[in-house]
Design brief:
Strands 1-2-3-5-4 form a five-stranded antiparallel sheet, with helices on one face. It is an alpha+beta fold. The chain has three helices and five strands, in the order E-H-H-E-E-H-E-E. The chain has a single domain, classed as Heat Shock Protein 90, CATH 3.30.565.
Length: about 130
């Protein structure tokens, strides 16, 4: 199994870099163009959910772990900080619903397995798996 890890500043402008990296990893793992787009979209939504939704500011940093095996990619995104101090220029997601969020629906519809977690310290995580 190949394992890749990224520590990402919570700034939204890094989402493009993450999308490019995940697309490259998924292509290398053998996923076709449509599946790669699905994975990239799910990862974008998961990153936003973990680093932003429900907080007054963006997460100072979060972690993305990608495990690639033959016929399978597993992506785990988790909040990796104790503060959300990066200022939001606009705050449309301060009142995001905790359940039934459209982003959650998107993630669940695009990936084969999805698990949402919350640690005792309040850190959120999302684990997603896609099969060939």
């Amino acid at each position: 199994m190949d394992n890749l890890q990224f520590i990402i500043p919570g700034k939204p402008e890094y989402l493009t870099m993450i999308r490019l990296a995940i697309g490259s990893i998924a292509t290398t793992a053998g996923f076709d163009l449509d599946a790669c787009e699905d994975i990239k979209t799910a990862v974008s939504e998961a990153c936003k959910n973990v680093s932003c939704h429900g907080f007054d500011g963006f997460s100072d940093k979060y972690e993305l772990q990608c495990n690639v095996e033959k016929g399978r990619i597993e992506i785990i995104i988790k909040d990796d900080c104790d503060e959300h101090t990066l200022q939001k220029l606009a705050k449309p997601c301060q009142n995001c619903p905790k359940e039934g969020d459209l982003g959650i629906f998107v993630i669940q519809s695009l990936m084969n397995e999805v698990t949402f977690g919350k640690e005792e310290d309040g850190h959120k995580s999302i684990r997603m798996v896609k099969f060939l």
